[in-house]
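quick one, 109 residues, struct below
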Amino acid sequence: MNEGLTLDGLAVPLRALRLLAADFGHLAAPTVGVTTVWPDRLELSFHGDLAGFEAWRDALGIAPDAVTHSTQSGGRTRVLLAYGQYAGATVKLVAYADVPAPALAGAAA
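---
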């Protein structure tokens, strides 16, 4: 934890957010996170919106092979995660989406 950190100490991710809003205001709005734990990081997260994640990944120039995939909640939630750099900030890009239920064999269409 960064005891005594002032708001000015979060200037890097806040500046990046301002520039992202100006440069990519047409993209889907993410949930935004800034924390004193990682004062140079800006987190953009998407819940149930993998297309929004992909649009931002592309806009930030993060290579598709830099995205990691995992699951949580007993395999019921898909998680995509990638990191990039923008305006001096580390951008953590994350998406959460339900894993589709498997189709039942022989079920009527």
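The chain has a mean pLDDT of 91.
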